[in-house]
Batch of 3 targets.
Target 1
Amino acid sequence: MDDWTVLLVDDEKEFASTLAERLNLRGLRCETAYSGEEAIEAMAKNPAQVVVLDLMMPGMSGLAVLEVLRQRHPDARIILLTGMGSVSDGVKGMKMGAFDYLMKPVEIDSLMQTIREAMQKQK
Amino acid sequence: MQTQKALFMGRITAGATHEIKNVLAIIKESAGLIEDLISLGEKNGRIPVEKLTKTLTKITDQVNRGVELSTRLNEFAHTPDQDAAPVDLNIAVERVVSLSQRFARLKRVRLEAHRKDGEQSVFTDPLAFLMLMFSGIELLMNHVGENGLISVEPSPAQGDIAAISSLPAGTTIAMDDAKTLMETEGFQRVEELARNLNMPVRLEGPPLRLVIAEPIGSPV
């Protein structure tokens, strides 16, 4: 998993940075972006193989970011994080080409498992 | 009106509980990180005390944030207890601003509450009054644009009970802003809510400012 890069996108900075730290401790190389715009910029500079994307963010919505990333980085696997009120957006995201969606708060083991599956599909 | 109130309560509650869930998610990940660090430390014989302390501080901060959010939500839940009561304007402004912060953040708008010295109050329907101020905030938030500022002030002048002012981030302010906004559905909604409370509202500007005046005639 050494060469795998994951981009974690969430506007809750404390959440994103802490979760990224935990993923890093598990052997991933995890970067963070705190908005959709930042994520698109980060992907342009240094494309990640897997993007973990929160759906509800200020500015560009998660679905809008998903659309842009699917066009510009068709190989990247995108895992959506949804809240209780946005499950329908998670389903919509799957139809738009997301790899999977998980409900927040997410268990680290199931997130790791989903990232691993995404990586295997990516190879 | 009852349906409008129920919808309003639903929106505010959904926003506040979403924030509380975020707080809990941060606490959960921080606690998880502490577990990870301890387990790693046990393996390599080095406990990263500084990192652990930093993470514990993060948990404390989030607990305080959660307490503040749930206190606000609890106060809000008690707002409909009385159909009419004296409403402290400083508290009402503070409360509506606090409960609207999430909506402001999603629109990337800054939202501030101002206080006025001394006790200022109005006898009205407390929930309907919060709903009126929230609708006013939302109206200007939708208009001010990203990085704009909305400030809410109690008793801005004699005869007025609240003012919601907007300041766009850019330097260009269209001269017909107030006139354009008066024709929108959002303003009509504000007017309708204000009418129910017998409170005249006026839109001034640019920069845009929505002023709510004292209720006319007998208390609601």
Target 2
Amino acid sequence: MRNTSSTANTSSADNDNQITLPDARGHFGPYGGRFVAETLMGPLEELTKAYEKYLKDPEFNAELEYELKHYVGRPSPLYHARRWSEKLGGAQIYLKREDLNHTGAHKVNNTVGQALLAQRMGKTRIIAETGAGQHGVASATVAARLGLECIVYMGSEDIKRQSTNVFRMKLLGATVVAVEAGSKTLKDALNEAMRDWVTNVDNTFYIIGTVAGPHPYPAMVRDFQAVIGREAREQCLEMTGKLPDALVACVGGGSNAIGLFYPFINDKSVRLYGVEAGGEGLETGHHAAPLNAGSPGVLHGNRTYLMEDEDGQIIETHSVSAGLDYPGVGPEHAWLKDSGRATYVAINDDEAMAAFHNLTRTEGIMPALESSHALAYVDKLAPDMSRDEIIVINLSGRGDKDIQTVAALKGITL
Amino acid sequence: MGRIKDCFENLKAGNKKALIPFITAGDPSPDITLPLLNTLVENGADIIELGVPFSDPMADGPVIQRSTERALKHKIGLHNVLDMVREFRKTDQKTPLILMGYLNPVEIMGYDSFAKEANEAGVDGVLLVDMPPEESDALQAELKKYGIDQVFLLSPTTSDKRLDVVCAKASGFLYYVSLKGVTGSNQLNISDVSEKIGHIRQKTELPIGVGFGIKDAESAKSVSAFSDAVIVGSSLVSLIADLTDKKDEMLIEAGKFIAGLRTALNVT
């Protein structure tokens, strides 16, 4: 691996204190950084300054906390899935119910934070990219709440897959722009949002929905999502008297996973599992699992693991869940993989689909197809653990948005 | 020192401005790139920017995006582009050639192999849009071994503090992005650009080229009044796209377009 900057801190001592990353220039070891065109360097510095200032500002944090409590509905419950645990006959399984948040997923934790920041920076126009539509809905929601103009970029392929969320965004007053370039999915929506930002930097705040992008986004989005892990840690201690033995979360860009993992990173007894989209199987090449089957490269402003060909071109990904259909992954996950702190596995489309049905029937909770990947891995993990061990899964979103996909796969027309 | 420096010194001695056209390698097909390069030089291009196709051209507008997509249909990657440069150098040892593109193709080749192969092929400079000076130390060390210049962008949002950082790391020339936006945008404000270039000149001795938003002889001429080089991309690429199926005509029209710009720049 290449040390690309004089300030990139790749010493092994960081393995013991990962919580201090990134460094001042946004590097997580060799990953992360700020790889953007010159026009965005100034605005990113301005954003970094604002973010660092308000992160420590008691008034900002009080407002954020108020919004998270009264608008988002936090804290989200930690739910003991007894029937499912019983069925698997191993570890006790707890679900961190991010699906119960306002708008139905963890995405809103971050959009509330960034929108409040946008407001303080005097920006009147919000742009966002979206894959499954959850981040787009969450952005449109807070934009409506704060009276900001909102433009959401979405690949035309995703628009077809997630028509309900598109309509939802429009109801909220957002403009949804269909992106026809490239593979017409999340990565192309991100490209287009970047192009908008570079053109309208003066009045526009770009709310990136995941822990990717140029510094400070990976750190900033993580910090806004870390509320998930902070609550889960406290709730688990309160309910069981101890820390969980394992955390499991799905990883597309990786914001719900890092949000859960981050407050546990220095708890060495807690194993961390990130679950990528194995699509039709890693061996088929039709998947979205860069940490399992990709290689390091630079895309969308940061160095990380990517799905790329031998020429360095980004290749098309496949997953049954639009929210995981992304060829990159947050740089902090790349670092957690290399340092060995977290383990990244892949779950195929059909396994995720089975887990979707299983949780729906066993616990009466309909999970998002993204989160179903995490659930499917627990089906494999829990039986080998003892009954007094604990797994916490991030149930990052609810499955209502996916019922059309599920119906179509079963050959049912709604 | 290399071709870029010689080129600017010769132009300066003749009180002339550099004309730098951009084309995407392999657009619309690989066989046309070499004849196009030669046509551009014959009609008055001083330096050429050759675009390396990348699947995710974040800083480019629709015109250059589509040119990249056309080239990628032929699977044109960095290796192929270097082959084209090698061919070009067989008959032209004088015209400086700059590779322009995004970092990832270079990243996957490896900085050391890239610098070595680019030098062997006859590349004089590299401009990687998504690699600001802050991230470029390792690559720059490799490029320096072979005397390859790294050209950096400056923009209307570049602060004075960053201006120092960029000027300290840049070589060859500086590329001033004349407006906020992607390539092919069209809200060029000449007096703003002029003022900014004047400011940049206080910080550096390097030649300054201006690009983004230069469409025709008129805008080229007005920008040349205060810059050392005029960079033209989208209008040329758009002309090429319109004549995709008529290659002879494409070469003639591209030649005429460049000749027109050359004439406008030469009028004093």
Target 3
Amino acid sequence: MSNVVVSLLGQRLDNVGFGAKRWFRWRPTLSLLMHHDFQVDELVLLYQEEEEALLQKTIKDAESICLNIKVTTHKVTYSNPWDLEQVYGQLHNFAESYDFNPEHNDYYFHITTGTHIAQICIYLLAEANYFPGRLIQSSPSPEGPHGKYQTINLDLSRYDQIASRFHKEAQESISHLKSGIETKNERYNELIREIENVAVRSTAPILITGPTGVGKSQLAKKIYELKSHKKKLEGKLVEVNCATLRGDNAMSTLFGHVKGAYTGAVSERAGLLMEANNGLLFLDEIGELGQDEQAMLLRAVEDKVFTPFGSDKEVSSDFQLIAGTNRNLYERVEEGAFREDLLARINLWSYQLPSLRDRYEDIEPNIEFELNRYAQNTNQKVSFNSTAKSKYLSFSLSSYADWKANFRDLNSSITRMATLSNGGRINEANVDKEIERLQYDWSGGGEVQVSASDVLLEETLSAEVYESIDAFEKAQLAEVIRVCKESKSMADAGRKLFDKSRLQKAASNDSQRLKVYLKKYGLEFKYL
Amino acid sequence: MKIIDGSQGEGGGQILRSSLALSMCTQTPIRIENIRAGRKKSGLGHQHLMCVQASQMICNAKVSGAEIGSQTLTFEPGEIQAGDYSFPISTAGSSCLVFQTVLPALLLAKRESTLRLSGGTHNMMAPSFDFIERSFIPALRLMNIDISTELHAYGFFPVGGGEWSATIKPLDETTPIMLMERGEMQHSAIVTQAKVKSHVAERELAQVQKKLAISASDLHINEVIAACPGNVLSVQFKHTDGTAEVIDSTGRRGLSAERVADIAIKDARRYLDSTAVVGEYLCDQLLLPMALGSGGRFTTLKPSLHTLTNIDVIQSFLDCEITFTEIGEDCFEVRC
């Protein structure tokens, strides 16, 4: 690899006179050639026509410092070195015309000479990869004419402190997208990490799929808040469920109409797309959108223009689209109900949110979240007692819990229990009743078959043992397991379970009795 | 392959130069790791690379890792070839350090060699040509090593452009060196300068005269021609056997003439306060030729970490014992 330095000939800094004294002075461009730990194989000098004499002297001095250096020149012409347009244009021309060969050369653009405008332009060119190299900066030092130099890598993530700052910021954004819930499901967390990246960097459409109640519109709202917080957009969040749009009304709601566009259109209406200008439009249930609306939406997304209903003039609105759906849009395309080109356009960033059943690790943190939300909405703090909590949790995680409407179900369930609880405490009775209710709902209003004890036993016992025990034993065993789960130690559980009989014995060994009992069912206290 | 840890001791360029010299002399392939790990900008610098390339040239070595910034270098020497070599050194790199690196190998060659060195002749942080000519070579002569040099042009930082040549006769029968007592010394100070106002040299010498009590007739200004300006003050103590202690200080912008002089004066005072014959830098340079030749004894100042590291490197290649015995204040006897 050879090192190639590109430097603007500095009209002031590189020009310190032609006498012998120049060798004592720091000349930024030439100083780069004097370092023993940085070899310059080629120097490319960008100069202005009137600097010809300085250029020739600089070339001569460069060649006397470095015996084998190659010096090439490139003329730039700008009447005003403080005019960004002119300077950028000239430097861009250079970058475009220069035959960069990054396979064989390392390029360094020297930013110490030239105006601040030139520095800004060099930075912009490097950042946009027009200049495939690093920036290098030099500064004077009392050590001698060679001064100091420093290479600057624009990839900020390479700097530890900055990287950790970015990391912290990203963590905050991710936490925001998750509504502050400490989710543990790896797939979900991974998904949110990527959405965070996309939300911050991209203005392209995002498609969020997933069954009802997984939080699509919640997520859209959080993305909006994040972008708005980061000043990535200025406009509003406009939400609409496409299933509610029908007929003339659909066109007009989305794209607006002019006065008299249809019967009843007595005044002009701007429409939701216009309202979302410079903001974010969330179209939920996009699969329900009619054909005409799909065609118009495609145009609005691709070209940022559309025609209001009944108008012959195009209007324009710049918005980011987030679409939500619980349908398989590919199937809708096959059925001819959804435009393939529109799907392709909105499918760039497509995310499927997992159902609550697929995120069983996240049920517990979400229960806490729902309780907090209830507290905030009603100003009433509500919590579970510990037995009630473990009962509700073990039901939530069991195969009996369908969570058909996902987080919507969880939200309703917690709201019901919290409302029915007395003194801000959700007890076992509340939980039992709620479990019955949920099962009734999920069975489509059918019969309730499973008791809470059954749930606990199925969760705890091996399938083989569970199948083999009589209904007669189940109630007792379930109660023992419940007490064990609550107790700190086996002795503690033993005292509670054998509370009467232990009084009649001289020396009671409750732990031993409990251990033997549990062993019959293949259980050990420490695993409960 | 012999592995050398470049970070041992003072961890600088001397480990590299001594290792290259000894690798060639003993025909031992080496790998140097953690090159200059002790320095702020670690790895091979331009100057070090020049030493590697010059060494490669005189013995046809197989080399890998020879690039700027490289921390690991492998060097497999071939047979040492006497001949006429020219080593152009860019960016005013020190030609004296290159000379120092290739000299031991060429002493072991079958025929006489001539070197033409161009680059810096008076650099900071490196022995100057004055030191080579007046201190190092006369001491080697006492060991029956025959080298003659001739300076054609001076070279200062940052342009260099200095030029000198050296004729190196192969070793015949070496004699042990004995430099135990000083005897009479002739004190002098010389400023060598190019394109610098004469008052700078005058002030440097005035400071030396004031603080070291050197008589006016032993102060000299040597105005020279060079590609770029430069200024070096050299305080010299010449012994009756022709050897000398040479102490240099390089002038630069931002450092007053008096400060430049003070740097040399400080080292000169230390030398005068001791009874040792050989100064710190000469001691460093003499050990390798002594170990390759017939050894000897001399008195010197308290050894620096630089010297101790150099001894470790020498002893890792050669079966020799180098001992330091304290015999007075800041005075040690060295046996090899």
